[in-house]
Amino acid sequence: MKTEIKYIELKSGYSDNGIAWIGLVSFSKSGKTIYFDGKSFQSLNGMGIKGNHFDLESGEEYWISGVKKDMSDRHKFGGGKIFVEKRILNDYLRTIGKTELPKSGYELTEINTEKPTERINELENSHLEKPEIDESIYTKTPKELTNSELELLIDELIQDEENARYNKGRRIIKKNRIELETELEKRN
Questions:
Q1: Mean pLDDT score, 50-69
Q2: Where are the strands (E) in the chain, listed by range?
Q3: What is the pLDDT of residue 132?
Q4: Secondary structure class of 65 (helix, strand, coil)
Q5: Backbone angles phi, psi at 108, to 5 degrees
Q6: Same domain, residue pair 151 and 70
């Protein structure tokens, strides 16, 4: 499994002052999932509010990047300690060209090295399990759908809208739901 030293900062609920680490992350076989401190992260593909990755279980946004040799990992207006994983201290010091960790702004810490692959696989597979329905309803236009198919899709969209993590996705789902509701109202 590929590993790399990264800077990781919690962004959800914080401006640029979230808890931050410099630690050894590992990647899934595909390279799409990053594991660190018992958590799993995936890219937001530019759709984040402040972060570039999100925790697959909590949905919280994080900033994950390579470490900077000049130690300017925190945003220039941010603050707070950066926790450095003990097991990578020597490698990190070599990267930044120092012989010891600065006393202010940094603290050594232990990290949970568990990779929650089973938990994450279970979580991702639970999203794939759908009730037995005719998949062709997803390719029909609203006018081609029966009333019961319209009602089923509206119910699914309401649930998807409630569970959507980001406003842009929520707006698209709402637009589709309203289109189906309008078609159903025309018929009644």
A1: 91
A2: 3-10, 20-27, 33-36, 39-43, 53-55, 61-66, 82-85, 106-109
A3: 57
A4: strand
A5: -75, 145
A6: no
Instruction: Name the domain count of the chain.
Output: 2
Query: Which one, of 56, 181, 45, 185, lies nearest residue 116 by Cα?
Result: 56
Does residue 83 carry a pLDDT above 90? yes
H-run or E-run covering 159: helix 147-163
109 and 174 both lie in a single domain: no
Nearest Cα residue to 126 out of 60, 172, 57, 176: 57
Average pLDDT, the chain: 87
- pLDDT confidence band for 133 (50 / 70 / 90): low
How far is it, in rounded angstroms, from Cα 78 to Cα 139? 47
Q: What is the pLDDT of residue 141?
A: 87
- Per-residue pLDDT averaged across 81-91, rounded? 96
Q: Angle 167-187/147-163 helices, nearest 10 degrees?
A: 160
Position 26, amino acid: S
